[in-house]
Design brief:
The chain is built from 19 helices and no strands. The protein has 305 residues and is mostly helical.
Length: 305
């Protein structure tokens, strides 16, 4: 069956079907099969033009690439096929279906969740500006996958974070985080991105400048009130990083971290989380209390809720 599947994939324009994808998945138990399937699928994706007639088969091919990645494939082998730039183009192509964009985002997320060198391959292929395209849609899962990719880049090295800021992605990330109408899961991924950026504040004036100008402090303060345990954890972590940050002299005019957080109502929101009856995570409550007593003692008295 694996040999027949390989012939189907190698045939290129013959097209893939759901049945063939199922056969591919069934054959992924053998490392040797994966080794042979990967370049065939990559070549199919690289060589097949995007049009209505081929759309479904390309979707299935990219889906199979994603499933191969789930089988503990070495990212270096995936990248060596040369398929990453093609996946970025499929993501940004207005003629690509929503399903194809989702599958491409999953594959690209697999790449950027690897090493810095892996992430650089995706960035050099144009991933970051391409991520702006799905963020303009109203599709929740596309938004979630896009922000997952962005959060991984935000956790990267200095040049990768700089590329993210240059791409203009921070503005829509903040928009999602602060929009009560967006889904909690998308806002959670957006909070990951902003919280990761707080770890880069010290020693990087560019990140600090973008952080201050991009309403990131306000967004993290507002995130404390999102009814999701992980979002609250990320917000508390980000606020802690801000409070421990010593702004460079050229940014001191913007105010101290404590003053910035006060202007964003962070003390009141920390107190609201600490005293809320519907927040049951003791660690989050304790962390909020510790931040209040250390940095905002005037707001540490229990709120009436």
């Amino acid at each position: 069956m694996a040999e027949e599947t390989l012939q189907d994939v190698t045939a290129g324009l013959a097209g893939l079907t759901l049945q063939k994808v199922s056969e591919i998945e069934a054959s992924l138990t053998a490392a040797g099969t994966i080794k042979h399937l990967l370049p065939c699928l990559a070549r199919y994706v690289l060589e097949t033009p995007v049009n209505e007639a081929n759309m479904e088969s390309i979707e299935y091919a990219v889906q199979s690439l994603d499933r191969i990645g789930d089988r503990h494939l070495q990212r270096a082998d995936f990248i060596a096929t040369g398929v990453v730039p093609r996946l970025v183009k499929l993501l940004a192509d207005s003629s690509s279906s929503t399903t194809l964009q989702k599958q491409a985002l999953r594959c690209l997320g697999y790449v950027v969740s690897g090493t810095d060198d892996d992430t650089d391959v995706a960035i050099e292929a144009g991933l970051l500006p391409a991520l702006l395209v799905p963020l303009e849609t109203k599709n929740q899962y596309l938004c979630q996958l896009t922000l997952w990719n962005a959060s991984n880049v935000a956790a990267g090295n200095k040049s990768q974070v700089s590329a993210l800021l240059d791409s203009g992605l921070l503005k829509p990330v903040i928009r999602v985080l602060m929009d009560d109408q967006d889904s909690t899961i998308c806002r959670r991924e957006a909070c990951w991105t902003v919280s990761n950026l707080t770890r880069k504040l010290s020693g990087d004036t560019k990140v600090a400048q973008a952080f201050l100008e991009g309403r990131c402090v306000e967004a993290l303060s507002a995130a404390l009130l999102i009814p999701d345990r992980q979002v609250k954890e990320l917000a508390v972590s980000g606020i802690t990083n801000i409070l421990e940050w010593k702004p460079p002299q050229e940014l001191e005019a913007g105010g101290s971290p404590i003053a910035l957080l006060r202007s964003a109502s962070a003390p009141q929101n920390l107190r609201a989380v600490r005293d809320a009856r519907d927040v049951h995570d003791k660690k989050i409550k304790r962390d909020c209390h510790n931040l209040l007593t250390r940095y905002f003692p005037d707001c540490s008295r229990r709120a009436r809720v």
